[in-house]
Design a protein that fits this description.
about 800 residues; mainly beta; Immunoglobulin-like; Maltoporin, Chain A; 2 domains; 24-stranded antiparallel beta sheet; 5-stranded mixed beta sheet; 6 helices
Length: about 800
């Protein structure tokens, strides 16, 4: 496969040897900032390219005199003539804004902030997203970025998919869509399956590693991810997509864009469906998706309204298997959750209104959002006695025998959850002669309802109906924050960064049926960040940053109300607070405390038109880091607790090289050291001293590389990924370790112009795990999650 790939690329390069390479950059004429995503084309042809995240472009032209045109929505088009006599032309476009571009504060100001300190940042532009995305969830798309890994419970990148940055799981990563927080306020996780196929609607993905959050996001420990949607274009069109692949995976979508109407309005809509049997047994998914965006452009104001989401359903697959099974080709697909009725259904619509207004040097942005979710998951409950379901005489049931020793054959638990979250995100930015000052706030209100009932069971006791709820409670979280961010050019070569976030938030659990538990736990955090960047020469910079970040535990760390009916003989489930003198719970003294991190980073970067190199070193000291405790909950997720002191340090290397026209080589690697400095684990067997042990879930070595070849009508690339071994518990048990693995993936796209009435037809091919490795992507304790063997996805897109 590799040899064939190289031969094809070399032959393709030879076909264009008589042409010349044109390079250049597209800039905003008023601000001087790079315009990523601008298109540079030869009018009347399909020759051209999109500007990368630095505004740069490169493509081939014939030797004759040609005219090039640069375009970007919200800017006047500009044309320039490239003479035939110039063998290596370089062109600079300065585009004049005609209206305020969409989300310019989220995109442009973020780039302004990151440019002096960008070794800890990564961007995926729309062209890169289109080349790499086919059907898998967003964590798979991000897994090539520095210090980033992913895994999925179903094995093939669909369904319950998990993202890690620097080894930190997604509960400790701030994820946003258009600046709107996506982490569940109660359990901090990100449910990627609740916005399926969202990557098809994205124009940019920003990733920040380490402490802090993009634009005052909730406390980020491992990093922050901002997904920016905008598929508005100047020209109207319709796109039809159909794809099929391994494990009976199917994808269908229909999208339409209005183009710019009356030089003011734009509309974009997309409907899609993804289905798959999954790699593991009984790990099917059935995702429906929708996205609707409406925008109004004015000279100094833009308003955008987005609605997206989709009802989803899937079979549960949250339990892993043994190491021996994962290594056996015949057994590794086994899913311990076998009952067909063990499924999930959920729908979570997102509503957004984003308004931005520019006056003079000021930019003001207001985002209003509302997210509502409702659904259920049904799972086996035959393991639980009557007492777990509170089927006892105390609750009015007639029970013949001991309620702790009577069971319900084939019991099926119906767990229901409903969430509502509303918020307002105001921001203001002032562009000065020597820098940019941004101030903003966040207000969020979250409410939830949780209950469990028995949907089915053989010989259900009298009085137990689907309406009977054996647990029920409500949750709430209020969040208010203020932030300020300043980037100041203190001298021609020296830039300073100052960032501070003040966050006040509080959990509440109330209306608990049976036990009537009611508590409120407030938190107040101040998270500062400081940085210096020095431009050694125009293409070389060095920098250093320091940040302090604190973050609260999950609500379940304080009290797992859904499990409060657990029989006392199994170990009582009670609120996790210290007891006061009167034996009441002291909510100001939780047993699991907030974690605090001190993060020092230093780095350097080299940036030229055909070469980018960066190095970033980090040193992160934690107090009370929230780590895996060695136990799993009912759903295979690790129960967590505090480690008194821990240390994470590492070095990240990244680079991109374009050796000749069409060719691009990008690579990154991370070497890290993740250790428990002072930690005790308390069990019935006694106290285990774990000082010096590796922290579970953190590989010490990561590496990625991609070799790409791009021509006018096609692109080919081969991507390699290496993930070092890591432990699945903090005990450093050799039987609780995920072995290192290396993978190779292939990506290809071929765009063919067609007759009048059809803009183009594009073929897409993605081959994952080309070498057909049997590997394990993740593990928790002695439970391991195998990943798919070689799998293929082929897509066809018709543009009208």
């Amino acid at each position: 496969m590799i040899h064939r790939f190289l031969i094809i690329c070399v032959l393709a390069g030879g076909l264009t040897a008589q042409e010349r390479l044109v390079t250049g950059i597209v800039l905003d004429a008023q601000t001087g900032l790079a315009l990523a995503g601008a298109t540079v084309m030869r009018p009347g042809s399909r020759i051209g390219a999109a500007a990368d995240e630095h505004g740069r472009f490169a493509f081939r032209l014939p030797q004759s005199e040609v005219v090039l045109e640069a375009r970007l929505l919200g800017y006047s088009a500009q044309s320039q003539t490239v003479p035939a006599s110039d063998p290596s032309p370089s062109v600079t476009f300065h585009l004049q804004p005609t209206v305020l571009p969409l989300q310019s504060m989220l995109v442009t100001a973020s780039r302004t902030r990151e440019q002096p300190f960008d070794a800890g940042y990564a961007n995926l532009q729309q062209q890169q997203i289109q080349e790499r995305y086919s059907v898998q969830d967003i964590p798979a798309l991000l897994s090539e970025l520095p210090s980033t890994t992913f895994y999925s419970e179903g094995g093939n990148g669909l369904g319950y998919t998990y993202l890690n940055i620097r080894g930190f799981d997604q509960r400790r990563i701030a994820v946003m869509v258009n600046g709107v927080p996506q982490n569940d306020p109660e359990d901090h996780s990100v449910y990627w399956l609740d916005f399926p196929d969202l990557a098809a609607n994205l124009e940019n993905i920003q990733v920040q590693r380490g402490a802090g959050g993009l634009f005052g996001a909730a406390s980020a420990i491992g990093g922050a991810v901002n997904l920016i949607s905008s598929n508005f274009t100047q020209n109207r069109g319709i796109s039809i997509y159909s794809g099929a692949g391994s494990y009976n995976t199917r994808k269908y979508s229909l999208s339409a864009g209005s183009g710019l109407m009356d030089n003011r309005y734009a509309l974009y809509a997309r409907l899609g469906k993804i289905t798959s049997d999954g790699y593991r047994d009984n790990s099917w998914v059935d995702f429906n998706s929708y996205f609707l965006g409406v925008a109004r452009f004015d000279k100094r104001m833009t308003t955008q309204i987005n609605l997206y989401g989709g009802p989803v359903s899937d079979h549960l697959a949250y339990y892993g298997i043994s190491r021996a099974e994962a290594a056996d080709k015949k057994l590794r697909k086994r899913n311990p959750i076998q009952r067909k009725e063990e499924i999930e259904n959920f729908s979570q619509p997102h509503y957004e209104i984003i308004n931005e207004w520019q006056t003079g040097r000021w930019r003001f942005q207001n985002t209003l959002f509302y997210v509502t979710g409702e659904g259920f998951y049904d799972y086996d409950g035959s393991w639980a006695p009557y007492s777990y379901y509170r089927i006892t005489p105390e609750n009015g049931f007639q029970v013949n025998g001991d309620a702790e020793s009577l069971y319900i054959p084939d019991a099926l638990i119906h767990a229901y959850v409903s969430n509502q979250q509303a918020g307002w995100l105001p921001r203001a930015s002032l562009q000065g002669d020597h820098g940019v000052l941004t101030v903003g706030a966040e207000w969020r209100r979250h409410r939830s309802l949780h209950y469990g009932s028995l949907k089915w069971g053989t010989e259900l006791p009298a009085g137990v109906t689907p309406d009977y709820r054996y647990y029920e409670y409500r949750g709430a979280k209020n969040i208010a924050s203020l932030f300020v961010n300043g980037v100041y050019r203190a001298a021609d070569r020296l830039t300073c960064l100052a960032d501070a976030v003040l966050i006040q938030q509080s959990y509440r659990l109330y209306d608990e049926k049976y036990l009537h538990t009611d508590f409120t736990k407030p938190y107040l955090f101040f998270n500062p960040k400081l940085g210096l960047s020095y431009l050694v020469r125009p293409d070389v910079k060095v920098y250093s940053t320091f940040a302090r970040t604190s973050r609260e535990p999950r609500l379940k760390n304080l009290y797992d109300a859904a499990e409060a009916s657990t029989p006392a003989s199994w170990g009582p489930v009670t609120p996790q607070f210290a007891l006061a003198a009167d034996s009441s719970y002291n909510v100001n003294d939780p047993l699991v405390k907030e974690e605090t991190m001190f993060d020092w980073e230093v780095g350097a970067g080299l940036e030229r038109s055909n070469l980018h190199l960066s190095v970033n070193a980090y040193y992160m000291i934690f107090l009370d880091e929230i780590v895996k405790s060695g136990r799993l909950d009912r759903f295979g997720q690790p129960v967590t607790g505090n480690a008194e002191r821990t240390l994470h340090r590492g070095i990240e290397l990244a680079g991109m090289w374009r050796p000749s026209p069409g060719w691009e080589l990008s690579a990154n690697s991370t070497l890290s050291h993740n250790r428990l400095v002072r930690h005790r684990r308390y069990t019935w067997a006694g106290v285990h001293v774990l000082d010096g042990n590796r922290i579970a879930g953190f590989p010490d070595v990561l590496a990625n590389a991609r070799l790409s070849y791009r021509a006018q009508r096609f692109s080919l690339s081969m991507a390699g990924r290496y993930v070092g071994a890591f432990y699945t518990s903090n005990l450093e048990d050799a039987q609780e370790q995920v072995p290192a693995f290396a993978l190779l993936d292939f990506y290809g796209r071929w765009r063919v112009p067609v007759a009048a009435g059809v803009e183009a037809v594009e073929l897409q091919l993605q081959v994952n795990n080309v070498l057909n490795k049997l590997y394990v992507a993740h593990g928790e304790g002695d439970a391991f999650f195998p990943a798919a063997e070689r799998n293929v996805f082929l897509g066809l897109q018709v543009e009208l």
